[in-house]
Amino acid sequence: MIAQNYTHVDTVVDKYPTSFQSIEDFAKRIEKDFTTDGDKVRAAYYWIANHVQYDYKSLRTGRNSYPRIKIKDFKNQEDYEYKYFKQYASHVLNQKKAVCEGYSQLLFYTCEYLNIEAKVISGNAYTSIDDVGKIPRNTDHAWNAVYFNDKWNLIDATWSTGNEEDKPNYVDFTDVYFDISPEKLILSHFPKDPKWQLLKVKKSKKDFYNQPNTFTKFLEVDATLDSKIKGVIRAKTNSYITLRFKRIDTTKKYYYAFVRDQYSKPVAIEKDGKMYVAKIPFKGIKKDRLEFYAGNDAMVEFRIIPTR
């Protein structure tokens, strides 16, 4: 499937003001400029990902700097949560900083004003090989499913920003998490409700946390690992670790590094039948971490356990 090109939408949204008075005003501007649901959702997502900064302070402290939300008039718990998160999303728009819940709620309520069906998906994000094999009890991430082009589409505005804690107002936008395929998102996102995997064959939480940890670059280069390769690799000392890919861009340069390496080292990609293979020399005698790079960017990482 060829990804849809949204350059025409992004170009228009680049001229939008850096702030809006309300979610309704934001949605009205989008409705004025675009006609299809896909373009409207893209416009909302693109503006949010490029103007809302990730709130690292809130992540560390568990507290945000928004005004206290008080809901006095509500019919039931569902009505209370609806009104609470609507105010919460308004604070995100006004202050332009949030954690994942804020990004996803703002996109949800913007879609509601646009009369586009959307959901906030709660679940878990897999971000470090240190978590391989560890199944958390609580959810720790939120993203969206939005209905357009006659199907549900998965979107993570938070992971699209490319914000960094030590770089205020820095944005390294990537749209790889806009309408990302379910097969790719399940590498890093596990929804609490399995139906939002949007996969014909659902993945268990155990299998999810036994995967290698993939980074954004892995998605950008459209790589696919052999499904037999897990997050933990047992390798003989003074032998090779063999990484097998179903698909990988052979025009790029690839490198690897173990945790104690000062510099990464180049590795060749060779064709082996229908697979592409990278053979990495391993001399370690202690547990290690292996990172595989495309250029300067980490693609995927593994935990290595030496055997004799």
From TrEMBL:
InterPro entries tied to this protein: CAP/Cytokinesis_protein, Papain-like_cys_pep_sf, Transglutaminase-like
Pfam families linked to this entry: Transglut_core
Any one Gene Ontology cellular component term annotated for this protein: cytoplasm
Domain Transglutaminase-like stretches: 92-159
PANTHER family: CYTOKINESIS PROTEIN 3
Record protein name field: Transglutaminase-like domain-containing protein
